[in-house]
Design brief:
mainly alpha, about 75% helix, about 0% strand
Length: about 280
């Protein structure tokens, strides 16, 4: 709920020229902070607590710190509203764009759900590595994602939003496909980091693209719709991916994810390669 409103707020308070840099900065901040949090399991062995108690103390501490987020946002945000408020619930002016974008995006959600949230589990089942290994790995990948997203505005200027999204997602998929062939965890780990960097370089570009295409008074609804579709399908496919891993199919989720990614990339490019990236009127 916060994320969908946040994207609309950023779009409403920026110009089309500054929007790629704004979404990139937001993404960089979020992912680097997530990376720092993901690194914490790496220091659990140094704490004078059992592994279980170390997790418990960390969850409670971060939960209390998290309360500061809505309080700080409430203090400094401005109340920006569309010039002409819309009536009704459905985004009528932008419905076609939302449906096309979400149709392509849902295949990414399905593919990612099969294995990405289960990467620590995969490392444990494949290489018997616990979150003492996978926690810092996720941390490194998140920090790398954040740093890589700094280049997103440059990519949009050089290639355009559509080609930039397609290029980064396509190269990311190649590294994802290579992961199940890794003989050791030390080989799989850098493949995962590079995959994460490339795939998430497209996230600020995709957010910018969607907000540019949507009418001003329908941005929050469009963002919410996209988040709902993503989360529901991503969660559902994670159940399927977990079942595959538990049954011993440690490579199959990667293969299916690769197919879904490629299908999504092809569909997105087909639908939007000639679209003029201007907001609907």
């Amino acid at each position: 709920m916060f994320l969908s409103t946040w994207n609309a707020y950023l779009a409403d308070t920026t110009t089309e020229e500054s929007r790629p840099a704004t979404f990139s900065l937001s993404f960089v901040t979020f992912t680097i902070a997530s990376g720092v949090g993901s690194f914490l399991p790496g220091i659990f062995p140094l704490m004078p607590l059992s592994l279980f108690d170390a997790h418990r103390v960390t969850f409670v501490t971060l939960g209390l710190i998290g309360i500061g987020t809505p309080l700080s946002v409430f203090r400094w945000t401005s109340d920006v509203r569309p010039k002409t408020p819309r009536g009704g619930i459905l985004p009528r002016k932008s419905l076609g764009i939302i449906v096309k974008f979400s149709t392509a995006n849902m295949m990414i959600a399905l593919g990612a759900g099969l294995i990405i949230p289960l990467i620590p589990t995969w490392f444990y089942l494949r290489f018997t590595e616990t979150d003492v290994f996978s926690g810092p790995l996720i941390a490194v990948s998140n920090i790398a994602m954040g740093l890589a997203a700094v280049t997103s505005p440059g990519i949009s200027k050089r290639l355009g939003l559509v080609r930039g999204i397609v290029a980064t997602q396509l190269f990311s998929t190649l590294f994802l496909f290579a992961m199940p062939f890794s003989p050791t965890a030390l080989v799989a780990a850098p493949l995962y980091v590079v995959r994460a960097m490339l795939m998430n370089m497209s996230s600020p570009l995709a957010d910018t693209f969607l907000m540019n295409m949507i009418a001003d008074d329908e941005r929050a609804t469009a963002s919410s719709f996209n988040v709902v579709i993503w989360r529901l399908l991503n969660a559902a496919s994670t159940v399927v991916g977990g079942s595959m891993l538990s049954s011993g199919n440690l490579s199959l989720p990667f293969y299916i994810c690769t197919v879904l990614y490629i299908a999504s990339i092809a569909l997105f490019y087909t639908l939007f390669r000639r679209v003029d990236q201007k907001p609907s009127q």
